[in-house]
C-alpha cells in the first residue's frame, strides 16, 4: 500500500512542469481528465492510508489496554464485631467502626464464578486465602496461601450471594464503611482428593499442584469424635452482609 501511494505520487510529480505543459499543449481535455482522476485517486489513497493508521491505532490501543490494565477487581472492606452473633447488631451500631477489626477483600467475577482474594489480615487471626465459589458446579474451594493447600466443600447458597449480588454488595462497600457481625463455621477435612478434573476448570486451575482435600460441616458428621489435639486454622472472609470465620480442622 505504501509503495502504491509512493508510486502514484511520483507519477504525478515526475511529469513536472515540462510534462504537464507538454500534455496541456497537446490535448488540454486529456490533461484535465488525468488531473481529476489522479486527484480522486490521491484522495482515495489518503483516505485508505488514514483508515489504515486509524485501524492500527485502535487495534494497538486495544492490545495495550488489555495488556496493561489489570483484570476488573472490586475491592471491599467490612468492619465487624467479634462479640457473639446474637448480641451484635445493636452493639455494633453503638460503636465507632474504626475500632473494630476489619476484613479487606478483592472480588473477581467470571460468568458464574466468584473468586475472592483475602489478604493477610492486618488485625486479628486468619490465613490469607483465595476463595472460589463455582455456582455452576455448586462447589466452594478455599486455597489457603499459608498452607498452600486446597479445601473443597459444596457451595452453601444460603450464605454465598450469587455473583451479581456480590458485585452489587461490593459497589455498596465502595461508598462507605460497613459494620457487621461475625458468624462462625466449623469444617472438618474428610478425605484427600487426587483427581481434580471433576471439580471443574476453575477449581482445577486454582488447586492444581496443591494438596487438595474434601471437607464437611462438623455438624453433619455422625458421632462427632472430638480429638484432644486437632490441627486447625481459620480464614475470615465475607460473601454476604456478614463476616464468616471459617475454622478448618484436619481430623
Ligand atoms: C449453610 O450455612 C448455614 C449457616 O452457616 C447453615 O446453617 C446451613 O446448614 C448450611 N447449609 C448447608 C447445606 O451446608
Task: Give a written overview of the molecule.
The chain is α+β, with helices and mostly antiparallel strands and 251 residues long. The protein folds into two domains: 55 residues; 177 residues, no CATH class. It has six helices and ten strands; from the N terminus they run αααβαβββββαβαβββ. Helix 1 packs antiparallel against helix 3. The longest helix has 41 residues. It is elongated and about 100 Å long. The structure holds 2-acetamido-2-deoxy-beta-D-glucopyranose. This is Integral membrane protein 2.
Describe the SSE topology.
Elements: H1 2-13, H2 16-26, H3 28-68, E1 74-81, H4 88-94, E2 102-110, E3 113-118, E4 129-134, E5 139-144, E6 149-154, H5 163-174, E7 179-192, H6 201-207, E8 211-217, E9 231-237, E10 243-250
Parallel strand pairs: 1-7, 6-8, 7-10
Antiparallel strand pairs: 1-2, 2-3, 3-4, 4-5, 5-6, 7-8, 9-10
Bound molecules: 2-acetamido-2-deoxy-beta-D-glucopyranose.
Instruction: Tally the structural domains.
Output: 2
The computed structural class is alpha+beta
Question: What is the number of helical segments per DSSP (H or I, 4+ residues)?
Answer: 6
Radius of gyration, taken over Cα atoms and rounded to an integer in Å: 33 Å
Q: What is the global morphology?
A: elongated
State the low-pLDDT regions, or none.
Answer: 1-11, 13-24
Mind describing the biggest β-sheet? 8 strands, mixed, barrel
Overall mean confidence score, pLDDT: 81
**Ligand species:** 2-acetamido-2-deoxy-beta-D-glucopyranose
Q: Report the helical percentage.
A: 25-40%
Report the count of strand segments: 10
> CA-to-CA gap between the ends?
71 Å
The SSE order reads HHHEHEEEEEHEHEEE
**Spatial order of strands in the largest sheet:** 1-2-3-4-5-6-8-7
Share of β-strand residues:
25-35%
Protein name: Integral membrane protein 2
GO cellular component, one term: Golgi apparatus
Main location: membrane
Pfam families: BRICHOS (PF04089)
Amino acid at each position: 500500500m505504501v509503495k502504491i501511494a509512493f508510486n502514484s505520487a511520483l507519477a504525478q510529480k515526475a511529469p513536472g512542469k515540462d510534462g504537464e505543459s507538454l500534455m496541456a499543449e497537446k490535448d488540454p481535455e486529456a490533461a484535465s481528465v488525468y488531473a481529476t482522476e489522479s486527484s480522486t485517486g490521491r484522495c482515495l489513497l489518503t483516505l485508505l492510508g488514514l483508515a489504515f493508521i486509524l485501524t492500527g491505532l485502535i487495534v494497538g490501543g486495544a492490545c495495550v489496554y488489555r495488556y496493561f490494565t489489570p483484570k476488573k477487581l472490586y475491592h471491599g472492606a467490612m468492619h465487624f464485631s467479634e462479640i457473639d452473633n446474637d448480641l451484635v447488631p445493636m452493639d455494633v451500631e453503638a460503636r465507632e467502626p474504626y475500632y473494630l477489626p476489619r476484613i479487606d477483600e478483592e472480588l473477581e467475577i467470571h460468568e458464574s464464578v466468584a473468586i475472592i482474594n483475602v489478604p493477610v489480615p492486618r488485625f486479628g487471626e486468619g490465613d490469607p486465602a483465595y476463595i472460589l465459589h463455582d455456582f455452576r458446579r455448586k462447589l466452594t474451594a478455599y486455597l489457603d496461601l499459608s498452607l498452600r493447600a486446597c479445601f473443597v466443600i459444596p457451595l452453601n447458597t444460603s450464605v454465598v450471594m450469587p455473583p451479581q449480588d456480590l458485585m452489587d454488595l461490593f459497589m455498596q462497600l465502595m461508598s462507605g464503611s460497613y459494620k457487621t457481625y461475625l458468624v462462625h463455621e466449623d469444617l472438618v477435612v474428610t478425605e484427600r482428593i487426587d483427581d481434580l478434573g471433576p471439580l471443574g476448570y476453575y477449581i482445577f486451575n486454582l488447586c492444581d499442584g496443591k494438596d487438595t482435600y474434601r471437607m464437611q460441616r462438623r455438624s453433619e458428621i455422625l458421632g462427632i469424635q472430638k480429638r484432644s489435639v486437632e490441627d486447625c486454622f481459620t480464614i475470615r472472609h465475607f460473601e454476604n452482609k456478614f463476616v464468616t470465620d471459617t475454622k478448618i480442622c484436619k481430623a
